[in-house]
Every structure is written in C-alpha cells, then in structure tokens.
Design goal:
single chain; 162 residues; mainly alpha; 3 strands
Amino acid sequence: MISSILSSFLPLLRRAPMQRWNSAKEFLDIKPTTLLYLIAEKKGFVDLPAVVEDDLDEQFVRGHGPGGQATNKTNNCVVLKHVPSGIVVKCHQTRSVDQNRKIARSILQEKLDVYYKGINSEVVKERKEQQWKKQEKKRKAKDNLERKKQFKDLLKESPDAT
C-alpha cells in the first residue's frame, strides 16, 4: 500500500522549482503532498542522509501561537527548503532561533530519509512497528475483556455461586 502511494507521488516530488522567494507565504505554499512525510518527526535514528548546507534555502519568519509579544513579534520561526527535493520544513517549537534551526535540520534529515529510501526508510519501519504494537495491545485488551465477560457469565450460571 505504501509503495503504491510512494510511486504515485514520486513524480510530483521530483520536480523542484528553482526560484527565489519573494515572501514567506509564497515559500511555504509549495509543499510535497505525500503522507509519508507526516511521520518523519521521530528521534534517534542512525542511518539518516547528511544534509548539505548548499542545498538548503533558509528563512526566518515571524512566529505564531501562544507566548504573546515574545513570539509573535520576533523572527524566530525557521523555514528550511531542500531545493533538490522540494521538501519544506517549518519549525517554531522554541523561542530560540538556534534551537529551532537544529530541530528543523533534524526533521528535514528524517524527511529526506523517507524521500530517498521510501518504504525501506528507518522512519517508515519504526512507524509500522509502532502501529503493530498498538494493534497488538488493542487485541490483548479485547481478549482480556472477553475473558472477563465469560467469567462473569459463568458465575451467573453456576448454581452454587454466592
């Protein structure tokens, strides 16, 4: 399923426009449209591709959200665009520009791993494993509930239950 999704979106992802951006909105409007990039924000992967600084287009835009004037009037939101692939990452997790730059680069690195390796990516494999564990946990809980129900029914039916 994931391979069919990936193969249908690869032609869209490979076309990377080479242009200068006039505004942050124009910069953020061009985004890759694949579901795999949404899962590429996990930490602790070993075999990720290196991010070449020459391939990045970096901008600092105004922040948003809670924090009032401290975040809304400073340019501490980092927007990274990987020019060859067209992947855009926007990071405004902290009030520090340096920390946001590091976080944005790590997220971009994981998204590049998904872009280049597809379903063989560590990020995708980790996500599949997490989904399997979640399903297994649900199945065990359902089985446990069924056993409890059967036990209660057995207690109700037995004549010597007190």
